[in-house]
Amino acid sequence: MRDCRIQPTIVVAAYNRPLSLKRLLDSLSKASFKVYSNIKLIISIDYGGSSHVAKIAQEFIWKYGDKEVVLHSRNLGLKKHIIYCGSISQQCEAVIVLEDDLFVSPEFYNYSCQALSFYKDDNRIAGISLYSYLYNEYAQQRFIPINDEFDNYFIQSATSWGQIWTKRQWKDFLEWFANEKCESKQLMSAKNLLIPDEVLSWPEKSWKKYFIKYIVDKDKFFVVPRKSLTTNFSDAGENYAYSTFRLQVPLQVLPQQYKFSLLSESKVIYDSHFELTSDCIKGLNSNLAGINFTTDLYGTKNLDKISTEYLLTIRDTRKASLSYGFSLVPPELNIIFEQPGSFYTLCKVGDCLKEIKFKKIKQYAATTSDIGTKKLISLIVYNTARRFIDLLKTN
With bands split at pLDDT 50, 70 and 90, how would you rate the model's confidence at 1? Predict the structure, then answer.
């Protein structure tokens, strides 16, 4: 049943978290590789971390093929380290890149091979995610993708929590990266690309912000599974000052034959802000088909970068052309099923106000209603504190 014509090399990026690395390697050793042979594992360790990291990597027994431990002689930093790991794809057909604070599903390799077989020739696919999102980090609330008949959806954003790149996909990114001279901070905001302002403010050590700019610039997408093949412990390290459960998601346990959708046929495509695209909404609500609008149901988009005449938004407006209530989750369903009310509006961009008042609190409460009042309050406090800490860091 499983297609194993492409067997990706597994590349683990490690630095200074020995316990995290051991946990990831243990999960790899318990994964299902029954129909595969000679799977290569590369553990790349950046310079300057604990000596225990190298010891764990060297002593780890990999029963499924060749193992190579790369000990870098100088500190690359997170961005250059991930670029190094992705570039290993140029020596093989494809790579699975895993940072050391991840944990894999037993089925992660089966999914990887099936997804690679299906998407390897699609030039609009920039990568394949192993992680399934349950959190919109820009809106700071739960993310609930629209359901359809397929085992995947698409998003115009990069994942850093378990991803697959083919040789061609990574080569295309490297060529863009070199041509854009992306080391310049100014060039990150030089073009009027509609990507989250928060992404532009990420530190220079982030490779992900450049990849997000690349896929928006080139109109490419990541494939995202509906059942996650990795979960993220967010251990304290280069990206996090403290551990958090915020990015933990349920893992797929049992094997399956996946039903993938083509990008051209999908009605579940999200942009870089985790907003369902206007084309998808039009395909699900024909009454909006003739209107040129941008989706802003979480109110996170920069109004100065909106190029369409209309905005479908949670923001307050001076004059609404159409309006919708908020009685269904996820938010897009209120537009698709035309729920009565005035929570979301379709308006001209010039009539849109920056204020959102208390709508975001109601939206946040609705998407987390199943977790209980005490937990909801703690999440609001946590997210407020986190945003304040992040603001202090950027300043």
Answer: very low
Residue 146, Cβ neighbours under 10 Å: how many?
17
Which residues, 6+ apart, have CB-to-CB distance to 60 below 8 Å?
Answer: 25, 29, 43, 67
Instruction: Pull the structure tokens for residue 172.
Output: 């295309």
| Total-model pTM | 0.90
Asked if the model's pLDDT at residue 371 lies above 70, the reply is no
Burial 283-316 (b: 16+ CB within 10 A, else e): bbeeebeebebbbbbbbbbebeebeeebbbbbbb
Q: What's the whole-number mean pLDDT along residues 274-296? A: 97
DSSP 371: G
**Neighbouring C-alpha atoms within 13 Å toward the C-beta of 133:** 29
CB-CB contact of 101 with 237 (8 Å): yes
Q: Take residue 147 and report the two structure tokens written for it.
A: 């359901």
Angle between helices 167-180 and 77-87 (to 10 degrees): 140
Instruction: Please say if the pLDDT value at position 376 is more than 70.
Output: no
**Tens digit of pLDDT for each residue in 81-91?**
999 999 999 99
Strand 310-313 vs strand 344-348: parallel, antiparallel, or unpaired?
A: antiparallel
